[in-house]
Amino acid sequence: MMQPTDYGVADDPAQQLYRAADQCVLSQGQMRAGLVVVAGVPRRGTVMTKSELVRRMAELHPHLQHSEVERVVETIFQVMGEALARGGRIEIRGFGSFTIRHREARTGRNPRTGVTVDVPRRASPFFQTGKLLRARLNEER
After folding, report:
1. Which pLDDT score, from 0 to 100, does residue 4 have?
2. pTM for the whole thing?
3. Which of 2, 27, 35, 71 has its CA 20 to 30 A from that of 47?
4. What's the rounded Cα separation, in Å, for the pair 126 and 77?
């Protein structure tokens, strides 16, 4: 029988991802100190890569095969990238939202030579933290 959790049904893969991500959130103090928690072990000066995220999630959910977890993570990133490429907005309640910000074309200057160059219009992804994530990052530990 499936057990209800804070996120929904225990066997829902998307909810399992939320739980794994919750366990990877850092405090402001850890970020200032350059600490990153990978697989439950704080490491100084490193970042969590996609392969480390997959490994950590596989550890947290031993009933899922590593290849299944990898496929879920790849699918999530692919779908998010496609949505942003279409100009969409991705909102994950409590975590944050991803949007595209556009910078208009402008005239710039090459700092080395001083030559004027035309810089084309470009789009950049932008992430804004949600209230719950911001509160977790700013809580005293």
Report:
1. 44
2. 0.58
3. 71
4. 15
